Amino acid sequence: MVARRRQNIDPITVDDYSFKKVEVFKYLGANINSKNDMHEEINDRIACGNRYYYNIRRLLKSKLLSHNSKTLLYHSYLRPIITYASETWSLSKRDSKRLMTFER
Which branch of life, at top level (predicted)? Predict the structure, then answer.
């Protein structure tokens, strides 16, 4: 990815490797795009959190587990899925509201 405004950029060549310009790529599990738009990343994080929630919903609804155990599950497993790489996000009001809705 190139941070310049020029549209026509030739591939960068180093030794025998050629690197093409891309608009979006995944780095360490986080989506990075050329516009620095975090909406897609937040949508992906919420979708991953929803998938994980539906995988463990039996445990969260079980009467065999205590409230403390369920809280520990949430804080140890579910919340980190949602907040991974959140330090780099620039949130809009809409994104913030969506994250708060998921938290509820």
Answer: Eukaryota
